[in-house]
């Protein structure tokens, strides 16, 4: 009984694990579908993924293959790299800071605005009506009221007509942006980055000099909701002048309309600039570290670069970076960026022929109509003339579209259950085989002992007097073997 309970618990755990893996794959496939849609239909969809890189791999200055014991990673300049992939036409781009700004919704929203402005500039001041955003499942930076309210603000300002925000399941959030981080880490193993500009070249990045305080600007005008970290998908859609906010857990589920809005009213003006805080950087220790490793620099100017950097760290003036939100194009005033293509007449005629609407008519009706033109001779029995009508028949065919994900969903569950059944059967077979082998070993041992004792009895008592003792010993041996076998099975 105990054995059966243990096996049932193991099978249940394996079944739940396989079932969870199926849902993780479905979520990833949903993300890949949105990514592919932005690549094939750039005038309709825009897909962005935003995530941060491990800070331990981008400390400056960086010397590839020349690390000495005098270098202390604690005293090097820690940099934080945030990567953005525009799946349509922007590619990979990164934004670097020195931890002078808190890693909160302000950093995420400012990076999102810069990515949108970069995409609009590449498409001649044009943004598609639908935006797909893929974030890391982190409530501190991404999955919070501030980011969701800002997404609703983008729809309210008519910058987008529809925005989808998606998060992968916890523990399974690594995606294509992490592949770019891996390539950067691999490049740093063979290439020196002795200055900040050299790191920008390796990671195709730009420095975040200014961050606007969007959090304190938008939250006073936002509503509070509970359990916003539970759903994996949010949708903000503008329909008939009103904004509908929907959410759902898995992508296979139906959208649920939110009772209310994240944004109560539009904020006024523009947010203030976040004050930079360099307290996390120990200037004295960093300068001493640079002095210790000055012989490792390929050029002496790089040593002077870091000396001036730490001396003027708190004196650098804040760059006048404009507030990007008013500069983004609206949907009503956008002009598609696709060029005008002159189609040849032969191609135009072929297209018109293919796009011509087919008309299906009844052939019998046409022949009857032709016969109608002949003079009709009335019969003497006063038979009424039959009226002939010609109908133009046009048929509409509805082709059902099968959702590949839902069609293969039950098949995947069946395969997982079949795999679980085969694994369980194989484990039970191995268990039974081991029990039989143990019983065979016990039988051989008892038989050996029986032969040994019989020879001893035959030697001392003689064969004529020993048969009675041998029969009693065989009967006792069988009882003992039966008891040992049953006790072994109960122990298993």
Automatic annotation (TrEMBL):
Q: Do the record's keywords include Transmembrane?
A: yes
The transmembrane residues are 409-436, 448-467
UniProt keywords, alphabetically: Membrane, Transmembrane, Transmembrane helix
List the InterPro entries hit by this protein, alphabetically: DUF7869
- Give me the ranges of the annotated region Disordered: 363-385
Top-level taxon: Eukaryota
Name this polypeptide is given: DUF7869 domain-containing protein
Lineage of origin? Eukaryota, Metazoa, Spiralia, Lophotrochozoa, Mollusca
């Amino acid at each position: 009984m105990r054995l059966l309970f243990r096996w049932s618990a193991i099978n249940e755990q394996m079944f739940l694990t396989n079932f969870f893996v199926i849902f993780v794959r479905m979520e990833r496939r949903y993300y890949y579908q949105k990514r592919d849609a932005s690549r094939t239909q750039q005038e309709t969809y825009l897909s962005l993924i935003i995530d941060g890189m491990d800070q331990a791999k981008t400390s400056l200055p960086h010397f590839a293959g020349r690390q000495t014991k005098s270098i202390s990673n604690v005293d090097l300049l820690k940099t934080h790299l945030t990567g953005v992939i525009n799946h349509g036409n922007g590619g990979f781009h990164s934004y670097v800071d020195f931890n002078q700004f808190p890693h909160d919704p302000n950093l995420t929203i400012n990076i999102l605005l810069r990515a949108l402005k970069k995409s609009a500039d590449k498409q001649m001041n044009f943004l598609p009506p639908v935006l797909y955003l893929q974030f890391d499942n982190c409530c501190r930076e991404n999955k919070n009221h501030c980011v969701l309210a800002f997404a609703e603000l983008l729809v309210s300002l008519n910058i987008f007509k529809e925005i989808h925000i998606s998060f992968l399941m916890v523990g399974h959030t690594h995606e294509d942006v992490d592949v770019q981080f891996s390539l950067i880490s691999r490049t740093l193993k063979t290439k020196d980055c002795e200055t900040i500009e050299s790191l920008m070249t390796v990671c195709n990045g730009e420095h975040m000099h200014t961050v606007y305080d969007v959090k304190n600007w938008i939250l006073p005008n936002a509503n509070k909701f509970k359990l916003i970290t539970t759903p994996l998908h949010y949708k903000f859609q503008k329909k008939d002048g009103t904004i509908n906010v929907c959410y759902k857990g898995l992508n296979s589920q139906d959208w649920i309309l939110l009772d209310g809005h994240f944004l109560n009213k539009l904020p006024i003006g523009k947010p203030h600039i976040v004050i930079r805080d360099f307290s996390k950087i120990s200037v004295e220790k960093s300068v001493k570290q640079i002095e210790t490793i000055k012989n490792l620099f390929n050029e002496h100017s790089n040593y002077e670069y870091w000396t001036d950097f730490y001396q003027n760290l708190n004196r650098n003036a804040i760059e006048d970076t404009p507030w990007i939100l008013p500069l983004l194009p609206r949907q009503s005033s956008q002009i598609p960026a696709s060029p005008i293509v002159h189609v040849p007449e032969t191609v135009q005629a072929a297209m018109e022929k293919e796009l011509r609407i087919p008309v299906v008519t009844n052939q019998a009706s046409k022949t009857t109509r032709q016969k109608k033109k002949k003079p009709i001779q009335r019969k003497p029995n006063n038979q009424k003339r039959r009226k002939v009508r010609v109908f133009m028949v046009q048929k509409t065919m509805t082709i059902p579209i099968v959702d590949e994900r839902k069609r293969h969903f039950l098949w995947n569950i069946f395969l997982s259950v079949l795999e679980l059944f085969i694994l369980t059967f194989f484990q039970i077979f191995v268990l039974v085989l081991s029990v039989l082998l143990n019983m065979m070993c016990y039988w051989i041992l008892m038989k050996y002992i029986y032969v040994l004792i019989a020879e001893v009895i035959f030697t001392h008592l003689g064969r004529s007097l020993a048969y009675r003792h041998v029969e009693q010993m065989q009967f006792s041996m069988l009882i003992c073997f039966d008891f040992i076998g049953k006790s072994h099975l109960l122990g298993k």
